[in-house]
Amino acid sequence: MQSKSGFNLSWLKPDVHSLAFKFGLSICVLIIISMSTLAGFLLYHQSSQNQRFMNDFGQIIVKQLAASAKEPLFAQQYQELDILSKNVSIDHNVISTAIFSHTGEKIVSNGQLPPDNEIQFTEPFYTLGQTWRFDYQKEPVLIVHTSPISFNQVVAGYALVVFSQDSLYQQLKQQLVMMLSTAIVLLLIVMLAGLYLGQVLSKPISTLANVAKNMQAGKQPSVPVERRNDELGKLLDSINAMGEGLVQKDHVESMMSKFLSKDVAQKIINKIETVELAGEQVEATVLFADIVGFTSISEKISPEQVQQLLNEYYGYFNACARFYFGSVDKFIGDCVMVVFGAPDADDKHQFHAIACALLMQELAKQLNQRRQSQGLYPIELRIGINSGNMLAGILGSSARMEYTVVGDAVNLASRLCSEAEGAEVIIQQSLYQQVHSDYPMQVTEGKTIRVRGKEEPVQIFKVESIQHPYPVVMSNLIADILAKKID
Questions:
Q1: C-alpha distances in angstroms, 352 versus 50, 63, 223, 271?
Q2: What is the pTM of this model?
Q3: Quick check: 486 and 477 in contact, CB under 8 A?
Q4: Complete DSSP assignment for 317-386
Q5: Alpha-carbon gap, residue 323 to 205, rounded angstroms
Q6: What are phi and psi of 254, to 5 degrees?
Q7: Chain segment 425-446, per-residue pLDDT in tens
Q8: Tens digits of residue pLDDT in 137-176
Q9: Cα(378)–Cα(466) distance, rounded to whole angstroms?
Q10: Least crowded by CB within 10 Å, which of 69, 76, 180, 290?
Q11: Which backbone phi and psi does 234 adopt, to 5 degrees?
């Protein structure tokens, strides 16, 4: 059968007894089964991942609520407990929150809670902050997360957060519809292609099926040693090149998460096709932390010990930055540059930067106690912090790019770091005035310095301490970092 243009369309009406038809039909069945299995696995895997994410998110929220409520509960500051409970309820996935006493008596609550007979405060159920499900008026299905509020192994009460599963179910429903629609279209295309390929490529088609199977399994396709000069040979070469590209792409994506923070890596991946070199103006805070006397220290130890020392402290810096929503921009020798308020906006970036600096200093102090007990020399940090308007974005040329922030505010932060002595945190007067009203600080007024490019001198302050809303959490974080529970 031929079309009016003379193109052979006999493959659309094949001989059902021919080998080509059977071979093509076999390929269609194989691909259909493989695609169905893959689709089912992906849907199950995505469902499990989403469920695990919701559970982990709930565990984090309820544990944060329990940690935040610790001091107000022991101090019987019920108004502050009510504020904490309401703040958690802002999230659209949170249906209700509550804080109970150690006897199970409700102290504060927001939203409609599950029936009292559904809540049992017994050990060891709440020790690990586990979850259970219950039908709440049939729809929606909710998950209750709980965690004990304890201090020195004394349980003073319990925190409870109820999450809705609606958003999770809606997402799974959309994914199922998308997968089914895509599968139907692909199956129709595959069936027609299988009939055609079975007609004209009945013998070498097994080679193509094996290559496609390897790609489907996530392996780099292995093209047979035999070389072909026809169209099939070119197709096999293209598949081989594409497979190598996919393998390299997976390696690049996995390595990016090791060299960049999660937020920055995701930003670069999202703009990989349309990278904007202009950047954007942001209001952010930059922290520079430097190891005092590192040059003299490196002269006394081997290069391997220098590398080990830097990697150890890089890990500490990164843990402190992550706790206060900062991103490690870069490591410059023995110096680290941390950005708060970019790439993700943070309305408390100034406070978070100062609190992070004090956390670094306290961590360094406790590390020095450990180092001295081991007969090692102490390591002191000097830190400079500055806040202001700066340019943030993927900057560079077409051959070399990086995500960073630049501007006069960044340069001043570096200068303040150089003005600091060991174990000091230096800020300028304007930053002190902006933060002190909300988070009172104890500072020592320092000297006035002149900065190149600025007409007016800059008054600097040495930060001794800052009023932290949750000091116990900060102490626990240092203990976890030293115990290498956080990296």
A1: 30, 20, 55, 28
A2: 0.48
A3: yes
A4: HHHHHHHTTEEEEEEETTEEEEEESSSS--TTHHHHHHHHHHHHHHHHHHHHHHHHHTTPPP--EEEEEE
A5: 55
A6: -70, -35
A7: 999 999 999 999 999 999 998 8
A8: 445 567 788 888 888 878 888 888 887 767 666 766 777 7
A9: 25
A10: 76
A11: -65, -40
